[in-house]
Design brief:
By secondary structure, the protein is of the alpha/beta class. Strands 1-2-4-5-6-7-8-9 form an eight-stranded parallel barrel, surrounded by six helices. Helix 3 runs parallel beside helix 5, helix 5 crosses helix 6 and helix 12 crosses helix 13. About 5% of the residues have low confidence. The chain has a single domain, classed as Phosphatidylinositol (PI) phosphodiesterase (TIM Barrel), CATH 3.20.20. It is built from 14 helices and nine strands.
Length: about 325
């Protein structure tokens, strides 16, 4: 093919494909196309290896990597402001010096928490980074990346006004382990709602929780979860994922797997195993590739660069 033919083919491809106003709009379309080959990459607490977890720089870093989703944990302050923190107290992630019994985030005002410095992953305090509010995180993420809100369904009524204020509701994927009727009743209190992802343990409960959401989604398509987070034990392997993944895909949703540690995906199929495989062979295919064969199309990782590079090398990430 000549140079001009290649050029015009590229122009036609660019002009005829879907056009999106923002990257987040494109990612929402991908999320709702579960049959596509695209694998969505979720970053656990942002880029916590290089910045304090759940911090603004940790979010900015994974956006720069080209990740699709940033997973953020939320807590509520004494004065009812939602902030980003995995832990319910301030001891591990900040330079808190007070008594252990008063270190709870719910015992401090936002102003008091903003007076504390965030710590890096190895326990050293930063010079200036502070715990962000959810609104501050939303403003950074708006139009740029999807957000998975963890530990947050109990704060749904506090999160929604912030999401609506920023105009980011459709970019949010909130998850939880509550029963289907409770979840759908809460979600349907709002005319515009977040995406929802049930957290299920298929091997433990023989897919009962999974099937209850699938059946509810069939009866009321508007309540169909966009994805399911599948959690397994240390003695599991990709062969154990298959039944649940098949059910999820047949229901028109995406299957999300956590490769953070073996207790979520099985020994030998976590991020550290993938890293070791990459060191030995130059590729993490023996881990991530085996997972993808099952039909999993969303992976939450602690090694986003490794996973993104692998997916791009096999044509499954833009």
């Amino acid at each position: 093919m000549g140079v001009w033919a290649v050029f015009f083919a590229a122009v036609i491809s660019c002009t005829c494909g879907p056009r999106y106003a923002t990257r987040a709009e494109k990612l929402m379309a991908v999320m709702n196309a579960p049959g596509s080959d695209y694998v969505l990459v979720a970053c656990h607490r942002g880029d916590w290896r290089n910045y304090p977890e759940n911090s603004i720089p940790a979010i900015e870093s994974v956006i720069a990597m080209g990740a699709d989703i940033v997973e953020l944990d939320v807590k509520m302050t004494k004065d009812s402001v939602i902030v980003l923190s995995h832990d319910p107290n301030l001891r591990r992630c900040t330079n808190w010096k007070g008594e252990s019994g008063s270190s709870g985030i719910d015992k401090q005002t936002l102003a008091e928490i903003k007076g504390l410095k965030l710590k890096r992953a190895h326990g050293i305090a930063t010079d200036s980074l502070r715990m962000p509010t959810l609104e501050e995180a939303f403003l950074v993420c708006k139009d740029r990346i999807l957000i998975n809100i963890d530990q947050g369904f109990q704060y749904y009524d506090l999160i929604m006004p912030v999401a609506e204020k920023v105009g980011i509701t459709k970019q949010l994927l909130i998850k939880g382990g509550d029963a289907v009727d409770f979840v759908n009743a809460k979600m349907n209190e709002y005319p515009e709602k977040m995406m929802y992802m049930p957290i299920v343990s298929p091997k433990k409960d023989s897919c009962r929780a999974l099937k209850s959401f699938i059946e509810a989604g069939r009866a009321h398509p508007a309540d169909k979860p966009v994805a399911y987070e599948l959690c397994y034990g240390v003695d599991c392997s990709p062969a154990d994922y298959q039944e649940a993944v098949d059910l999820v895909r047949a229901a028109g949703s995406r299957a999300w797997l956590n490769t953070l540690w073996p207790s979520l995906c099985g020994r030998g199929y976590d991020d550290d195993a993938a890293f070791e495989a990459w060191k030995k062979t130059g590729s993490p295919a023996s881990v991530y590739g085996e997972i993808l064969k099952t039909g999993v199309s969303m992976i939450q990782t602690d090694r986003p660069e490794l996973l993104l590079n692998y997916l791009r090398s096999i044509g499954r990430h833009d």
